[in-house]
Amino acid sequence: MRLLLVGGCALALVACSGKSADEKAMQNAELANYTPPFVMSRLDFGGVIERRFRRLDANNDDKLEPSEISPRRRDFAMQFDTNKDGVISTDEWSRGMLAWFDRQDLNHDGTVTSDERERARELHDADLPTPDDEPANNSTAAAR
């Protein structure tokens, strides 16, 4: 009962805050431009790793050839070719991407936040992909 009373009083205070139309418009504009913080766990990133590999592997041979990787990210990705055979295997891709994630997880808590991504950018590290960065399908990846 007390909780309901306190909640009702809080709502009444908010409703009667007397904000001007300009203040409300500014608040609405701020909310419309709000970008929520980014947080990705290592477990979630594991799923991104696999999906991205499958989408990039245009010929479905379980190897990424340089031509299957966008020119913008090719040099970065080819660093994962640890046996220097000119292609990236699924194992090389997974190890490389997880190491990349771990470099950005500055406090080593198993998640990468917006702040950690920004810090990684400052340190000239590549940015973690978001779902929007993933190619739509193999044909899109092959066209890059």
Q: Which characteristics define this entry?
A:
two-stranded antiparallel ribbon, calcium ion binding, EF-hand-dom_pair, disordered C terminus, EF_hand_dom, single chain, 4 strands, Recoverin, domain 1, elongated, mainly alpha, 144 residues
Describe the structure.
The protein has 144 residues and is mainly alpha-helical. The protein has a single domain, classed as Orthogonal Bundle (Recoverin, domain 1), CATH 1.10.238. Helix content is 55%, strand content 7%. The protein is built from seven helices and four strands, in the order ααβαβαβαβαα. Strands 1-4 form a two-stranded antiparallel ribbon. Helix 3 packs across helix 5. Residues 108-144 are annotated as: Disordered.
Overall geometry = elongated
Mean pLDDT: 79
Rg is 22 Å
Please state how the strands of the largest beta sheet are arranged side by side. 1-4
Largest sheet: 2 strands, antiparallel
Strand content: 5-15%
**Could you give the count of β-strands?**
4
Q: What distance lies between the first and last C-alpha atoms, to the nearest angstrom?
A: 62 Å
CATH class: Mainly Alpha
> Which architecture name does CATH use?
Orthogonal Bundle
CATH topology: Recoverin, domain 1
Task: Find the structural class using helix and strand composition.
Answer: mainly alpha
Low-confidence stretches: 139-144
The helicity comes to 40-55%
Protein name: EF hand
GO molecular function, one term: calcium ion binding
Pfam families: EF-hand_5
Signal peptide: 1-21
